[in-house]
From TrEMBL:
Main subcellular location of this protein, as a coarse class: membrane
A UniProt-annotated Pfam family: YitT_membrane
Keyword Disulfide bond: no
Cross-referenced InterPro entries: UPF0750_membrane, YitT
Cell location: Cell membrane
Membrane topology reported for the UniProt record: Multi-pass membrane protein
The name this protein goes by in its record: YitT family protein
Organismal lineage: Bacteria, Bacillati, Bacillota, Clostridia, Lachnospirales
Record keywords: Cell membrane, Membrane, Transmembrane, Transmembrane helix
Length: 168
């Protein structure tokens, strides 16, 4: 786990605020940054994506489905799925209203900046902040998760770029 939620969980005990309040404030900040730096179309896509996320998350959660997977296999599958989820948002001109917004803004300013690499850097930084609260092993596992997620996202973004270049 990394990103806004993890950052909020790490910062909450340090400043004495509720985790959800911090996450909500950061999410609002990311929405504002999205609108200001990425534009109205990205913002609209982000709002639609956010609503879809809430509906699908709540729906699947309500089903109470359980996949009895070996934990490392489940973590690997989750990392791949998260990477694919980020790709679906980004490829449709939206953000996941997380720190991917920062990566996309930086990429918008300089196309040579690798979105997946920036996300991995931010996520790793957030995870390292939590080393004293959650322990070294948790941080190592989180970084491995983030590495897989970023690898999948990067591969999919490269594939999309390659397709665009072939069309031109």
């Amino acid at each position: 786990m990394e990103g806004v939620t993890s950052f909020s969980m790490i910062v909450a005990p340090l400043i004495g605020w509720d985790t959800a309040v911090i996450a909500d404030l950061i999410t609002i900040l990311m929405l504002i940054l999205c609108y200001v730096f990425l534009g109205k179309e990205y913002f609209k896509g982000t709002i639609v994506g956010g609503i879809c996320y809430m509906v699908f998350f709540s729906g699947f959660h309500a089903l109470g489905m359980d996949l009895p997977l070996f934990r490392p296999a489940a973590a690997l599958l989750a990392a791949v799925m998260v990477g694919c989820g980020y790709y679906l948002c980004i490829s449709q001109g939206a953000t996941a209203v997380s720190f991917d917004t920062v990566a996309l803004i930086l990429h918008e300013k300089n196309e040579r900046i690798n979105v997946a690499a920036v996300m991995f850097g931010i996520n790793t930084s957030v995870l390292l902040l939590g080393i004293f609260q959650y322990g070294v092993w948790s941080v190592i596992l989180g970084i491995a998760f983030s590495a897989v997620q970023s690898f999948v996202l990067n591969a999919l973004l490269k594939r999309q770029l390659s397709r665009k270049l072939r069309k031109n």
